[in-house]
Description:
Elements (H helix, E strand, L loop, with lengths): L1 H14 L1 E3 L6 E3 L6 H5 L24 H5 L6 E3 L2 E2 L4 H11 L5 H15 L8 E4 L4 H7 L3 H12 L5 E2 L4 E3 L11 H8 L3 E3 L7 E9 L3 H12 L4 E9 L5
Parallel strand pairs: 3-10, 4-10, 5-6, 5-9, 9-10
Antiparallel strand pairs: 1-2, 7-8
Helix pairs in contact: 5-7
Amino acid sequence: MLKTLVYNWFKIKQLVEIKCILCRGFTTLNQPLCTLCLNSFPVPTCFCSTCGIPINESETGLCPQCIIQPPLFDHCLAPFLYQFPINKVLQMVKYQSRLELIKPITQPMADLLSDFYLEDQWPEVVIPVPLHEKRLRKRGYDQALLVAKALKKQLPDVITLENQLIKRVKHSSPQQNLDAKDRQKNIKQAFALQKNLQYRHIALVDDVVTTGATVSEITKLLKKAGAERVDIWSIARTPENQ
């Protein structure tokens, strides 16, 4: 009886028409963003194999900055550029509790990861970038953790999800209002390990990577504790590493 009810509910979600959250065109209950809007998300045609920012196809695979001074992390993977309309969608997730938008924006991320990693090269563990407890209480949820959980369901079972390993111990100012130099100062020593590190290949998950200050600070912590490789998984990457 229960299986029948669940099956019928999923069939109903596929048929009931609602308005797309972005364009207000028609879509279905199980797809809050219409296909047209999903297909309009900005995708980089060519990006730096290390930091993930867009580069010209004529370049060597690395941006000029990574050639001179590569980041602490090993790879940054993001399916979208942080531009309209994906920036608006992520803001709605982060500040308006539109959590139903997480699933449709993590599927392209899962597809990108499946193309990038060979079967035996997946990270051992996925770790979301943590919120400070004060911000978590105010918002009511951790969007990076929800993104990580959604990705975990779409990726191989060999990957562990760990959200208790790292704690944000410094309640710093929001990063979005700061320039690159101030972001580094703001985030310095903001995180701490809660237990001994048992993983060598780690994926850090965040919704957006801008300058990379936050994920670099966590990478430094993890590599000091013994991690050999840290990859960054992000839904969107800002077009320029400023």
